[in-house]
Structure formats: structure tokens, C-alpha cells
Amino acid sequence: AQTIHQWPVAEIKAVGSPLSLGCTIKGKSSPNLYWYWQATGGTLQQLFYSITVGQVESVVQLNLSASRPKDDQFILSTEKLLLSHSGFYLCAWSLVGAEQYFGPGTRLTVL
Amino acid sequence: GEQVEQLPSILRVQEGSSASINCTYENSASNYFPWYKQEPGENPKLIIDIRSNMERKQTQGLIVLLDKKAKRFSLHITDTQPGDSAMYFCAASGASGSWQLIFGSGTQLTVMP
Fold this sequence. Notes:
The structure holds 2 protein chains of 2 kinds. By secondary structure, chain A is an all-beta fold. Chain A has strands spanning 3-7, 10-13, 19-26, 32-38, 44-52, 55-58, 65-70, 73-78, 87-94, 101-102, 106-110. In chain A, strand 7 and strand 8 form a beta hairpin. Chain B is mainly β. Chain B has no helices and 11 strands. Chain B has strands spanning 4-7, 10-14, 19-25, 32-38, 45-51, 56-59, 62-67, 72-77, 86-94, 97-103, 107-112. The relative contact order of chain B is 0.34. Classes of the chains: A mainly beta, B mainly beta.
């Protein structure tokens, strides 16, 4: 069975500091991977998607970047956090043309 | 950009009654429509979905209807229980392909005992 893991579970960071969030998926070969952001009480906004290792497409510009260094790993990062980056970051996976399933998420608070 | 409108934003129903949530989308090329349930502090869970080659799908007390002409789809929860209380999101695939999901703004459902 596939498992999706995100780290850290929660993070409190200062404005202007760097950030790195991670996601790994086990049990699926070459999945599509996604990053989503959800403001508190808000909807889900797709940020990035990746079909294969080394290839990442940006959906919306939020001063964030993403990378896929391995088939089962997806990283979200920024060099300088803004207050507006606070929220719930969710990694998701799917097979081609199929349903998307979300990981447990990372809650980020920027102060 | 493309949008998905979801109504109502808040829905309160009595236990045992039905609850309905409606969504409309803009892109006639959208062909995949999932529904997610999210409980406080948790990740969204896929509960049911429908593709454009169907008009109706039903599973375990959930019914999804799709009207492609009107670009409208809806979720109906029959015989609601307190455990159905949660935030519900609809989504539609975008013009760029089925990987792209555009979410509605969410419906907070409360089932009152």
C-alpha cells in the first residue's frame, strides 16, 4: 500500500527566514506529485506539480519554489518567508489521469 | 483564471435529513470532478468523484450529479449523521489537463442531532 509522509508536521518561522518542506511517497512508482497551500479557513490552491524526476511546473507564483530530486520525493522551499506564507501545506499524489490523494500536511506559522 | 463556484458556504441540517452542495465551473473542457471532505486539522479526503462520461454516481450515502450543459455538479448526502459534519470541497479539472484541479471555496456542513 502507498504511504505519503510530510515533514515537518508543524513549523514556526520568522519573516525573512528560509524554509524547506518535504514530502515522500512510498509504494507507487513514478507518481505525479503536487504541492497545495491552504490558508486558515480557506480553499486549496495548487502551487506546483511534477510528472517526473527533475521536472516541476509552477501553477501560481507565491515566492516559493519546488524540486523533485528523486522519484519519491518532492521539496517546497523559499529563501525568504513572508507573513502571507502562513498556512497549511499539503503534498498530494496521483497516477496519470487519476485521483489525487493528500498527505497529512505541514502547518506553517510565520511570525 | 478559471474558477469553481461553490454554494452554500455554510449548511446546517438536522440529523437524518439530506444535505446538498452545488458547484459550477467555467471550462467546458473540464472532465473530472472530485469531492473532498476535510475535518478540522486534518488533510482533505477524497470521498467521491465523477467523470464527464457519467451523469450520476452513488456510493455509501453519497450521490454526485453532473450537468455538463449547465456546467454544474452537485453532492447530495442522504441520511446525514453528526459524523458528516466537516468542510466539503468540490473541484474541477482545468484546461491544462486532469492534473490541474481548481477547488471551490468550501462548504461548512453541520449536522445537528
